[in-house]
Every structure is written in structure tokens, then in C-alpha cells.
Predict the 3D structure of the following.
Amino acid sequence: MATPAASTDKSTPYFPLAGLAKDGWSKDDEATATCLCGAVQLAFVSRSLFFAVTSSIRDLPAPLWFGSPSLRESSPVPPTPSPILALRPSNITVFNTTSRRPQPTDPPGLVNTFVCNCPDCHKITASAFASNFTVDDKYLQHLRGRDNLTTFSQSHTVASGNTMTNFFCSTCGSLMYRVSSGLPGLSILRIGSVDDFHLQETKLRPQKEAFTKYRLGWVNPVAGAKQLEEASGLF
């Protein structure tokens, strides 16, 4: 019998029976979110999925740039500190300028965590509220099932007036994430889709609670979360 999450060590991953797939993981640098049937699985990671190249690498010898000096001029320069990838024809060398290995729940990949009590979230979840975390798309991977996602978009019930596109697993109906037209490059995932329940309870604990004016009387405020009567900028 599985041990209740509340009585176990929160510093270690915990995977209760919560879906048909049993291949989710939670590691130092990435963690997964999976739909109920297991057809769709996402990973949110600590390092951008694009090559990060800082200005300090521009002076490296040409072989580090695949033998093409032109790449020195075209490569993007992200803010520092960040991992630097120097690629050679035969190997990959990683120069890490950070003092601590980033976690999948660290900025800039993780943008925010929040509970929303708005009427739209009541309907889309068929529940009393939605628990969310927003991820920069550069730190989000579709491990499987992207072609199994069905989308539905509308703006009529979205308080911000933005168009919200919802991405559902077409097999089991799990809502995996939402994308707002007002927040390009970001995806709003569901905390409940994360496979590691201890990650849900700790690092992904909501920092804000939005639309408290619509919170049902029998639902308590999220302890420690900033209480917002509305939700400016969240979606």
C-alpha cells in the first residue's frame, strides 16, 4: 500500500498510483507531467532547449563553432549566468557559469505558481479552482503524444479578454496546459499533472491565489499565497 504523501520525506520524489503510465520522473534538472492515460507526457527542464552561447565564447577557436566562423556573428547572447555549450565535431563540452545546478522549478524556466478561482477555471476544470504553474516554452519538452493533443480556443469567458487555447489529451481528456494570446512564449500547466506529488506539494506550491472574489465559501485560502481579488498579468 502506498504511503500517504503527508507522512513521507518531502525531499524525495513520491509517485502514488495516479495514472496508467508509470514512467514519470523527478530529477535535479527535470521533471515530468503526464496525462491520466499516459499518452501525453511533458518534461519541464532547468536548461533552455536552445543552445546558450554567451559573449565569452565568441573568442574561442573556430573548431568550437563547427568550423564555421559565421556562427560567431549569428549566435544569440543570453543573460548571464547561464550554462555555455561549446560544440566540437567529436564531443560536447559544457562550461557551467552558475554556482549551483539549476532546478526544474527555478526561474527563468518556472515563471510563477498560482491558484485561480475565476468562473472560467471552474468550468474548464469541472472543479472549484485550478492550480497552475507557468513555464517558459524554451524549458518545456513534449516527450510523447504531441500529435494526440486536441485544442479548443475561446476568449468569451476569459477575464483578461485574451484568447485561451486549451490543450487536451484526445484519449483521456486531461487538460495538459493552456496558452494565452497575451503571454506569448509561455504555457500554463496544471500542478496536478506533475508526476512527483512531493514536487506539487513543495516547489510548485502556489505563491498567488487569483480571483478570490469568486472563491467558494467552503474553500480555504491557500496558506502563504498572495491573495488577489483579480489576476492582472497571470493570463
User: Anything to note?
Assistant: The CA atoms of residues 134 and 188 lie 4 Å apart. The chain has a mean pLDDT of 80. The longest strand covers residues 110-116. DSSP finds three helices and 13 strands in the chain.
